[in-house]
Amino acid sequence: MKRILLTLTLWGALVSPLAADTIYGRVFDTLDNGKIFTDVKLTLFSNPPQQTTVDKYGQYWFKNVKRGAYLIGVEILDREKFTARVVVDNPTTIANLDLGKIGDPDHGY
Amino acid sequence: MINYFARPRVLGLLAASVCLGSLVSAAPVLAGEDDDTASRNQPPVLGTPPFSDNRTNATAVVGLRIMPPTSTQLIQEQRFDLRIETQVPGATPPTLKSLRINGVESSAQFNAQIAAQGVGLESGTPTVPNLYGASSRNFTFSQPGRYVVQAVVTVDGIDYTIRNVYQVTAFNLAPSVKHVVFFLGDAMGLPIRSAARIASKGVFEGRSRGKLNMDQMQAYGLAYTPSFDSIITDSAPGMANYVSGLKQPNNALNVSPDNTPENNLDNPRVEHLWEYMKRRFNWATGVVTDSYVTDATPASVGSHSRARSARQPIAQQMIDYYTDTSPAGTPAQPATGYAGLRTLTYPLDVIMGGAAFDWLPVNDSLLRNFYRAGSTQGRTDGQNLFTVAQGLGYTVVKDRTELAAAPNGAPVLGIFSGDFRPANALGAENIPGVLDRLVARGQATIGGRTASDASLGLTATVAPLSGAAPTCGATVRDCFANVPSKQEMVSKAIDVLNAKNPNGWLLLVEQSQSDKLAHPLEYERVIYEALELDNALGTSLSKTSLSDTLTIVTADHAQPETIIGVTIPSALDGVTGYFGNPTGTDPITPGGCFTNTITAANTGSLTLSITGAGAGNTATSTRPCGLQDAVATFNDGTFPTYIDANGDGYPDDPDPTVKLVLDNGGRPTYSQDYLTNVIPLNPAGITAAVPNPGRDPNGILLTGNMPTRSVSPVQKNNGNTSVAPHTAEDVPISVSGPNSSLFIGTYDNTDVFVRMATALSTTAPQAVPSASERLRAAIPNEAPVFDPTAAFKAPASRVVNK
To answer: Contacts of residue A96 in chain B, CB cutoff 8 Å?
Structure first.
């Protein structure tokens, strides 16, 4: 039994590489009339870190990311830098950054 | 049986496989691990992590999904937008390969419908290249039962398949049920109901001296409150879920999310009960609130928007006004591109609440002088919706006197004054809290202070800000006294609705300030808000009949406030004489709890020092703050002594001899002296980490547990969560009237919609004893035969009685 398990484990390791996934998302603010942010620098704190800038549609991608939880740095023009969290758990993890979700809409609006 | 001794060996094998796997991986794999912020010297993670959408019913890789979300409970003939979309773009344009509804291929009819609507806003066409997205507007399932919708979309040569299932409840209007009155106490959780009862009725020998109206309903249940994307709902889906059956994301009003976030008005929509009953049965509809009328709760029965902040379009939708022209700027709610939306919305017959900011243009003299708006506040498109509403037949009223004089035979738009006292926590867009209105009317005092006490801010004169248009009164007190009470608004609303259609109407009554005054931790005022809702409920029950009116009382969510004991205000107010010793000094001396150094309010740095009477932090030091001993609890929980000598249904003073003490499980740092604030002020200072030095400066320092940092724009909380939050617990729901037993039990807030519809329908025969059996009978499990040609029709023409 143990021999079968060892064989199966080694075979699985040889034929199926660890998951290398993609993170995709857009940066916008629902509560600011759906404003799309195009000048945003994102840093995925993987090892080594990956960095990207969103495109004119507010889109960004990080590719070849191992599954797990990461910190992600966000730099938006004229705003304070901040760090958020992203959990990669899919072949393509959809991670939209809706700035409208931050804060307390009931009090401010 | 698990052999625990073998585990290290198995783990070793797995570790070996991982190492080997890493060596042979074709693509580079970055080793990333979660980390703490300190080791990487990064700013703190936000209180609301914004990344990683929750798992939803979507395919891998391209995120193909169907809206409304799977398991949405619809009612027969309810309109909704059937949307199919991908969330991740491919390299080439995707195509819809198949759409099967209950096994019947329907993609041709779906595509024909999209073509008839036109691409762009009408169909929610994505602007990002190589995304798929199409919404068939105002679709319906004409028969009750179970519907399976399966879509196949081809992206870069690969077929992706997704399937949603919907249960559709039968609906046949029961002629015996004529009215629905839905009371929504915003954030009115169970502790607030209890506090209102104790304060209003009192306790004698451990027994309540009486019951609130909401305590005497026929059926009780509990509603779960999470939204589509958060366990902590905001007030938009908190209410909209009740009236539409759709689980919606935070900030959304009767829509689902989509892949066009750049437009908040083109999202896939769902018809809510107010629209459904008006469209199908010509029922009259109305909403009454003390918030601004475009706020999330009232907008839930009058609009469709992904963003509750789209207040100017929401105002137009409430009166069903769409236009492509505007006196200034760009039209807020155009007609072009929104034929599907215009078909869906219906005008409300009763609209009452606060704030003309979304109804009158910037710098309008009435807006400035009567409603006390700033010079930059108001509609940016130049529209005067008061004039528009009058042209549509509405009577527009601004105060209590005008409301009383308004004819019952015409729809009414009542927009009343807000709390425009400087720096107060509500602001000019919200009707003043009931305690402050009662003081203005001479019906209550605050710690013995009348409206003539200058500290209350009611004696200030109200001068015109621009031009010579009338103000709301000569003084703040006059303005507040001229705002109609909730009872007066509800009474008028019922009169107008009965005149419009005595055989059918729905009314939403929101008590907004039970939330908005709870955010800044104004506990005493929150109790008064709950009592105003209860008194308005009494008015409603007295003007309607239990036999034909379904009355519901609930909350959209709660806040983390609860009753922790009682205190004796006169023993800690700094005034000579206290309960039990009229000539002595207070046994508990306020002040000395902490000291602060601040350069100016809301600017500069604030340094806090805890100051104890003893030296240092030694075993012999005395307690740092005497006020910590001000709360009597456990065996010392003396029954409160609120008095309602004038019989108006409210305590005459919120600080009687013995009063309730409430505190919050979620809060910014603030200070508390257990006395009612003369004006509701924000609790926190420059951030949620420090108290507002202008509020209870001699109070006990209560440290916060809310986030102190946020990247939100300045208008949202000055960049931090400086108020108490909403909470995730269930909220009580109380119901009276026909088929009220359907509401017994615990269920999601969206199930309230199905229960309301079933209560209004002959599909819930009284002969069936069990509520669950009656609900099952209303939702057959069979899959009806689907006819795509009949279901996908050309855009419907407008309804005559709209």
So the answer is: 51, 53, 261
Peptide bond into B175 cis (omega under 30): no
pLDDT: is B127 or B27 the higher one?
A: B127
A31 CB within 8 Å of a chain B CB: yes
Number of CB pairs, chain A paired with chain B, less than 8 A apart: 235
Please tell me the distance from the alpha carbon of residue B524 to that of residue B640, in angstroms, as a whole number: 13
The SS3 of residue B715 is coil
Task: Answer whether A13 sits within 8 Å of B21, measured CB to CB.
Answer: yes
Runs of H (alpha helix) within B413-565: 434-440, 476-481, 486-500, 513-516, 523-543
Nearest CA in chain B to A8: B17
Q: Which chain B positions have a beta carbon within 8 Å of A35's beta carbon? A: 262
Instruction: Calculate what percentage of chain B has a pLDDT beyond 90.
Output: 75
Point out which residues pair with A21 in neighbouring strands. Answer: A65
Question: CB A65 to CB B32 under 8 A?
Answer: yes
**Euclidean distance between CA atoms B125 and B116, whole angstroms:** 14
Under an 8 A CB cutoff, do A6 and B13 touch? yes
* Spatial separation of the C-alpha atoms in residues B295 and B483, rounded to whole Å: 18
By Cβ distance, the residue of B18, B31, B60 closest to A47 is B31
Chain A contacts of B723, Cβ < 8 Å? 104, 107
- Confidence at residue B469, expressed as pLDDT on a 0 to 100 scale: 78
Please report the beta strands in B31-79, taking only residues with DSSP state E, as ranges in sequence order: 65-67, 73-75
In this structure, chain B runs to a length of: 802
Model confidence at B674: pLDDT above 80: yes
Say if residue B45's pLDDT is above 70.
Answer: no
Which ipTM value was assigned to this complex? 0.86
Per-residue confidence (pLDDT) for residue A81, from 0 to 100: 77
DSSP code string of B373-409? --TT-SBTT---HHHHHHHTTPEEE-SHHHHHHS-TT
Residue B195 has pLDDT above 90, yes or no: yes
Q: Quick check: A83 and B309 CB within 8 A?
A: no
pLDDT over 60 at B523, yes or no: yes
The side-by-side arrangement of strands in the sheet containing B104-105 is: B73-75, B158-169, B145-155, B95-101, B104-105
Nearest residue in B to A19, CA atom: B29
Model pLDDT, residue B333:
98
Classify each residue of B28-56 as buried b or exposed e, where b means 16 or more C-beta atoms within 10 Å of its C-beta. ebbebeeeeeeeeebeebbbbbbbbbeee
Interface touch B29/A66, C-beta < 8 Å: yes
Determine whether B607 is exposed, middle or buried from the number of CB atoms within 10 Å of its CB (0-12, 13-18, 19+). exposed
Chain A residues touching residue B33 (CB < 8 angstroms):
47, 68-70
DSSP-derived secondary structure letter, B626 = G
